[in-house]
Design brief:
The protein is α/β, with parallel strands linked by helices. The chain has one domain (about 20-215): Vaccinia Virus protein VP39 (Rossmann fold, 3-Layer(aba) Sandwich), CATH 3.40.50.150. About 35% of the residues lie in helices and about 20% in strands. α1 packs across α9 (about 180-190). It is globular. Keywords: Methyltransferase, Transferase. Pfam families: Methyltransf_31. This is Methyltransferase type 11. One of its GO terms (molecular function) is methyltransferase activity.
Amino acid sequence: MGIEIDLLKNYPKTKRDLKQRADEKTEEVRSIARKFDKEFFDGERKYGYGGFKYMSRFWQPVIPTFIEHFNLNENSKLLDVGCAKGFMLFDIKEAIPNITLKGVDISTYAIENAKEEVKPFLQVANAKNLPFEDNSFDVVISINTIHNLEKDECAKALKEIERVSKGKSFITVDAYRNEEEKEAMYAWNLTAKTIMSVEEWKNFFKEVGYTGDYYWFVP
């Protein structure tokens, strides 16, 4: 298995209103959010992002960490699983103009409304059935995505990441280390269907044969 490492350490931290989120989070709201359609990205805040627009301050500070960790260069091939509108891929392309990039997302809305500069590299696809040949990418990255699947589907997604990568990958998933973090996670979570403790995730990775690097999202 890979290593536990926070490659998003330079991603800006935002203050989250857990109480408001918990109060607004009805089953109807969750159902709408899980469609990952316009409401989730650009609808009311209670359904998701409340307006998903490109801002350089988010991913630009993170890209140098990715480049250093994975030794990315113009000959690298990288896949983003759960790429949304392609904002991270755009910033990677800005840093390494000739790098080969691909992005997939389950949301047709996100792909159709992706950043124009990277839209040609993106396509609609499900993480549990990636439309690529074995060993297609030097690096596969998936941020806060595979936990949106049921546990058995989550296992399929991890195996797919293993299959299409040449051995290097990085994922982040919803997790908790203690009861306080668990309470915060369940108050915040809107779309995830698989939430486990850090130790449960590590055991799960071993069970399904995921060998990439990983870290946790805790609100």
